[in-house]
Amino acid sequence: MVQHLIMVGTPNGGSPWSTVQEWAFTALTLGLNGLAVSGMPIASLGNLLAGVEAIDVNLDQLNPKSEFLDSLRQSDDPGIPYTIIAGNTSIIKPANQETRSIILRLVNRWAKSAVEFPFWGEANDIACSVSSIKYLPPDRSPSPQILEAACNHLDYFHDLHGLQALAGAIFATGIQSGSGPEIET
Fold first, then answer.
1. Is 89 helix (H, G, I), strand (E, B) or coil?
2. 36 CB contacts (<8 Å, ≥6 apart)?
3. Among 81, 92, 72, 62, which Cα is nearest to 140's?
4. CA gap 45, 37 in Å, rounded
5. What are the structural domain ranges in the chain?
6. Would you say 11 and 124 are in contact if contact means Cβ atoms under 8 Å apart?
7. Residues 6+ apart with CB under 8 A from 150
8. How far apart are the first and last CA of the chain?
9. pTM for the full model?
10. Along the 185 residues of the chain, how does pLDDT read in single tens digits?
């Protein structure tokens, strides 16, 4: 049924944010143990932590070492063409020099380090690394077409570069639907 699969920002190799969650829980646990020794009430914080853990199945599945991703990697090759669109924040260019200086000031303060921290300098779309997005088992045939876009994970369908990459991927398939409403441009 699928003639061509277009994946947009798909974390095929996982996301480091699941690891950041593990670090945060460890730090919180150590902090809570310190609070327990001091006699401060921590039952509500413990309940909050349990609630977050109960709803984070998706984040656990995005751990690069998860059983879920491992089973996807081991699945049979469907033998269909793939196009992978990978956002890359490192190639985003500011609109003008004034914007660039404002952005650099803001980014240098804390935002960049907070968002970039889990990636250890690796190109990313803020949700996963570019290498994770591009990752597919090496024996896939045909080999995927890979496009990088100067956008982040939240902007694929709003940013001009993300939309251009998506449009290019769609038109490159050569697939004509032949059904549905006509779209005027």
1. helix
2. 42
3. 81
4. 15
5. 5-14+81-173, 17-63
6. no
7. 87, 88, 91, 92, 93, 159, 161
8. 28
9. 0.69
10. 889 999 999 999 998 876 655 655 555 565 656 554 444 445 555 555 565 565 577 778 888 899 999 999 899 999 999 999 999 998 988 666 565 566 556 655 544 555 555 666 789 888 889 999 999 988 889 999 999 999 999 899 999 999 999 999 999 998 866 554 454 54
